[in-house]
Each structure stands twice: as C-alpha cells, then as structure tokens.
Amino acid sequence: MRYGLNYYAGVIFGPQGNLYGTTALYAISNTLFPTGMGSVFSVRTNGFFTRLYRFGTVLNSHGQPLDGASPQAPLVNGPGDCLYGTTYYGGTNGYTNGYGRAGPGYGTVFQITTNGLLTALHSFLGSDGANPTGLTLGRDTNFYGVASHGGANTKVVDTNGDVGFGTIFKVTTNGLVTILYSFGTVTDVAGHALDGAQPNPLVQGSDGNFYGSAAFGGSNTTIVDSSRDVGYGTVFKIDTNGILTSLYSFGTVTNSTGTPLDGANPAGPLVQGADGNFYGVTESGGSENTGTIFVITPTGTLTTLYSFGPTNLPGFPLGYYSPMFPCGGLLVASDGTFYGTTCGLTNGEGFGGFPSTSSSSVFQLSPAAPVILNPPATVTIPAGATNSFAIGVEAIYATGCQWQFDATNLNDGGEITGSATTNLILTGVTLADTGTYTIIATNAYGTAKASGVLTVVPALIKTQPASATIPAGATNNFMVGVTSVYPASYQWRFDGTNLTDGGEFSGSSTSNLTVTGAALCDSGTYSVVVSNAAGVIQSADAALAVEPFIIMRTPASLTVMAGATATFGVAVKNIGAISYQWRFDGTNLSDGGNISGSATTNLVITNAATINSGTYSVMVSNTAGSGAWAASLTVIPQTAAGCCISNLHSFTSAGDGGHPNGLVLGCDGALYGTTSFGGSNSVPQGGGGDGTFFKFTTDGTLSTLYSFAGGSDETDPEGPLVQASNGCFYGITASEING
Hints:
By secondary structure, the protein is mainly beta. Among the domains are: 263-365, no CATH class; 371-457, Immunoglobulin-like; 460-547, Immunoglobulin-like (Sandwich); 550-636, Immunoglobulins (Immunoglobulin-like, Sandwich); 658-735, no CATH class. The protein contains no helices and 61 strands. Strands 36, 39, 40, 43, 44 and 45 form a 6-stranded mixed β-sheet that branches. Strands 13, 14, 15, 16 and 17 form a 5-stranded antiparallel β-sheet that branches.
C-alpha cells in the first residue's frame, strides 16, 4: 500500500483551502512496524490526492523511525501556513527504555509544510510523556497537547506494559516542550491515579483555561477492562501555568450492580457550547452501559443528556438497535447542533469492542426550545391549603421560567413563592385563587408553555356517600370523607329534606349517617351539605334501595346425563324469617322419590331421568314481600334412540401396535391406519416399537400389514393415511433413527 491506510484521525481544512490528514498504518513498513508507519496527505476539493510524507523515511541502523510513526490525531493549522501534529510511536527514544520494556518509540511532535517538508520538533523521553494523541493551538500561539502514557509517575498501569498515566505539555513552534502536568500526581494508597489517566485532547475555553477528559482514573477505582485499566475517567481543567483542577470523576452515580449511570471512559475532546458549558461523550456507562452524552459546567456540575442503548430512535426501523459506544467526541456546528459518531453494536464479543455483527452511525444532538416533561397538574384543593405546581424541563441550554395566573405574570409575595422557577408554591389559598396557571419556559432556541387548572373549594370531599341496596330490617351507614382546613359542619338530607336524629336515623349532623332497621319506605336519595368559614359544598347523591330480601345467587340451568344428580340452588340475604318453595313446570314440589330439598335453598334431583326435564323455579317469601326465579333442566339419555355402540378392537401396544392415528376407508371397503408405536420390532433405546401399518375389516378383524423397523423406513408414523388412485397408501413418520 503506497499511500497509507487506517485513517484514525479526521481531515482538516488547511492552507490553500485543501484538506489535510494522516494515516496510521502502511506506506513504509519494516520488521519493527510490519503494518507500516503511516503518512501525511492532502486532498483538493476536486478529489486530487497528494501524499506529502511517509513516516519511516528517516531510519537509524536498527530500522527505528526517527521521524515518527503512526500518527493518530488530526493535524493542526499553525503559524506560517505550516501544519503540526503528533505520532503515537517512533522518534529517537523509547525503543529500549529504562522501565525494562522494549517498545516502538515514545512518539514525536512534528511540523510539516504544504509541500511535504517534515521537521521532527520533539521526541518524547517517557518522563515527559509517551504516545501523544494530538495538539490544540492556544490563543498564545503555543500548542498544548496530551500524551497517553509516561510522565513523572513510572507505575506500570496495565497488562500491556504501558508505563505512566500520561501528561499535559506545551510546545512552541520551534519544538521547545514544557511539561505542565503529570497524571498520577494524586494517588490513593494503592497507587491509583485519582486525578485521571490517559488524557484525551484538550479544548481551550472562553475563560482561557484548557478543559479535557481522561479515559481512566478518578475516584472510582474499579478495574474497567481486560487490560486492567483502573477507573471510569475524569473531567479536568488546567491553566497555562499547569495548575490542574479535577472537575468530575465518572462512576460517582451507579446502580445496584455497580454500572456507572453517569458514564464511563470519556472519549475524544470536549467542545464548548454557546451556553459556556462543555459537552462530551463516554464510550460506556449509562443506563445500558453502552455510552452517554454529557454536559458539564466549568465548575464541575455534570448532567447526562442521553444514554445510548437498545432503544428506538428517529431514523431507525422499529425494533432496530440504536447506535452504541460513541467515540471521537463531539463537534458543534454554527447553529449550535452537536454531531458525533458511534462505533457500533455489541454481540457479546467484548465490552465496547467492535463485534463481527456491528453497526456504526453519525448522530445529531440538536439544541431546541425547552420541552416540558410533566405539565402542571389540574387539582382541586380546600381553601386554606398549600399547593405546589412542579414541572420538569428538558433542555440542553439554560432555561428561564415564568409562571402566570390567568395569563398575568406572577411575582413572589403573599401566598406566592417560586414564580420564576420550575416549582410554584401557593400557600393558604382562597376561592379567588381558582384559575389557570401557566408555566413559560424560555431559552435561546424558543419557548414552551403548559397549563394546569387549580380549583379551590370550601372543603374537599375525598370520599362521596355510596349507594347501597339492603334487605328490609338491615342497617346502612352513609359516610363522607372531607378534607377541610377550617372546622366543618354537616347536614344530611333525604330526598332534599334535612334529616334530624330520631326513629331509624342517627348521625344526621355528623360525617356518618346511620339508618337502622330500614323499611321499604326508606328507599330514596341521601346527600350531605358540608359548611365551613370559606363556604358551602354539597356531596353527590347516594341512592338507598330497600328490598324485601337480596337475591345473591339465582338458580342456573343444567344439562346432565341420565342417572346423574342435578342440584338447583338459591342464595338470599335476609333479615328475619324466610320460606322457600320449589316448583316443577309451575307445580309445587314436595320431597319424595328422587326429589329432596323442595322447601330449602337447594333442590336435589337424584338419578335424573328424561321425565325430569323441564322448568324448575323457586318462590322466596318473607313478611316484606316475595319473588320467584326459574331455571331449566335437560336430561340427556345415555344412548340416543336407534343407536348402538360397541368396541371392535383394543390395541395392546405389542404386535398390533399402540396409539392409532385415525382411519381411512380403502377402495376395497376395508379400513386402513397406522399406530405411532408398537409392532413386531423394538427400538434399542428401550421404546415400545416403531409403529405399524394395519388393515381393519368391519367384522372386527385386524391385520398388521407392516411393522416399522426404525431404519431406512424411519419410525413413529403420525397422522392419517391417504390412498392414491393407484391403490397405494401414503403417510408420514414423525422421526428417524439413523438421520
């Protein structure tokens, strides 16, 4: 491959409006770098490609690329129409290092002109960093970069043998490097880097500080991958003098299984939004442990904006797995929209890896007008109570709130607090506070509104009186449940007329009216008027129906075989004496013969015959009234008239087979069929034979025509046969022995 392959880093617009980029592999290769050392190229907007430089052009006698190898970060425009970048490997150091490990070089910082003249500005020593991953041009015209490993802390940090937690450095255009910070400066007793490890490229904020993230390290010291890297990563800021402040450690919020819901292992550089906050992605963590998008303020308040995972998103078919494992960070467009990429889906072959069945994507996170997640609730409360209208607002950028009452802006004061927040509180409400309350949420991209209605009543009836049906002589309680801030009084009414205590009525001026020994004349409508200092409110009507008795269960119609027992029953709720009389086709029954229980709740007919078929009813009576209910009995004879049934053959499961599969009438008038098992053969596994094919004549003679052997003829025939026009029979087997 002449020009290079594996475009780890994106392209940039450089001098003359051309695109410039790097490849990490191929171009020149040798035994130390068998897949190549990468290249720098340019592409005109018309597609004309030019290879500017191949790394490995300058080798020492050992084949070590002194000019660098494997650039893995984008180029950066610098002064004088020059481009600057880093190589992950190569340089003059790090092939046999003082840490006891041979390696491919610690990497370089280089400058390259548009005509391909490359100058290696710095070869990393290990102590000042190793494996750099990109530069950022500061406002002071110096470059600020990060190295994934190396630094003052010489701890072996993973099973790959990598040494050091990484560094942040400054480099001038003539190659003078200043180490600003070595990660691992702050550790716990086990040597874990609490300030972060393996930093990602930096971004300079509007305040002049640089902000970035580290893929590992932090206060959560969980081992997070197969290389035994420790920690879910951090977000930090650093000034140009090297004062580093840790803003956040991922894994601060976890679920019951330890999954970091706030994200894990941030990737790529942060970007600063129009609101001054910084936005980024984590490769894993979140609700599905497949990555997040987050926003963090310059002071370290982090909010998870989105958790990637198996959800249905716009642009994906229903049931399709959405993108997972974001990589490469975000970029922000001029309209404030964020864009990013995902590495794919997992099929269980590795946490955050690239499985054989994968899907990658480009995604968009668009700033928009606020979205009100839960609008104000419509509620009814009693006078004097306190109400809170609480809403949720979803917005990327900062959002302001303003509450209105009947379209007029509210201000804090009196009974009102929180008029400019997401939680409006009204204390000691009056009837005049009844109306519509609207929240207006506004940010730079628009406005959202939502309303709820508040109704203030003198007292709130939480439980209305319940209607009831009772038997004569029973007692009924009407109850009302009231919430009232002020003392309340009660007045019960019957058919619109105020009640007083006396006779069957008690509790007429309380919340509980009792009707004792109710008579039929007590049937009607009951309600209660509730009064307090704020006003009067009346309950809903409740109906009381007083019946002679309550029928709980009526007789059910029956169909029984001749000789069986049929039982009709009735259940009654009653106060006092009650009588029952069962009838058959309108005639009163009495006990005798196969009839019993004719004057009870249950009528029993034993050894039923067809003569007992007909209509049965029961008359229920007490001193308050009576009623009748009917049901029918159908008695089916064992054998219909003119019919006779007989058994022609019983299979033995031996030579004649077992479990017949139905019959087919042959053209010779005989019946033919198969059995699923049995026959003259047996199965070595201990079954009861492999089935048969038989013929059956109408005089009851069965002939076994064939016994399946479980060989090429298969085993266990199933289903009925069919006879073809040639007289042959055809069928299927359910299984085979030798297949």
